[in-house]
Amino acid sequence: MSTGVTIAIVVVVIILAAALATVMLRPGGMGGQSLRRRFGPEYERVLGLHDGDTEATDKELTERLQRHGDLKTLPLSAESREEYTARWSSVQEHFIDSPAKALTEADTLIEQLARERGYPDAKSAEHFDALSVHHARDLQGYRDAHTMAGRTGQAGGEGGASTEEMRAALVRARSMFAELIRADGHGADRNRRTDAEHPDERTAGKRSGNGLHLGTIGRRQN
Asked: Which of 64, 165, 182, 184 has the lowest tally of Cβ within 10 angstroms?
């Protein structure tokens, strides 16, 4: 094969690769579809922030993948796992008496657990971005609880949120806790469904996918 033919083949390969990359990242193209499947509700949230601009949405989420896609979660010791589970149970037990305090403690607990698993600190702008790459389908509940906990902390009380709203936020955040504490987690969002992902009073006495009891969050009796 002559040098000229070899060069021509290389040029064609480069052109085809560039064309494929363009299609993958084109709004509504294969890249967008793949990102939408991977990020699920997080894709829709970011799309809303960009006023429906799919190109900007795909660009932002692609950059997140580039920054955090290779993150490998750190293992938890059996002792740490038991301690976190016990602390979560304690949070749920005193929710009825101190809902705002319980929500703040749950938020802090998830932050600490995420950091121990190797995710950026909650004070970092990358905290939620990194979690979205690996736990996109469980992220919004935790994000909402984090925001509500911040409001209640600043207000020195419930921050305008009702007890039922705080309870709902804590219930939704629990799925992120369950995902982060899994013994077999390796930084991949498996999108598995367990009692912890849609918990209610019927889950009393049941166990999550990792075999650790999560308990239930009670309602205040009026």
From this structure: 184
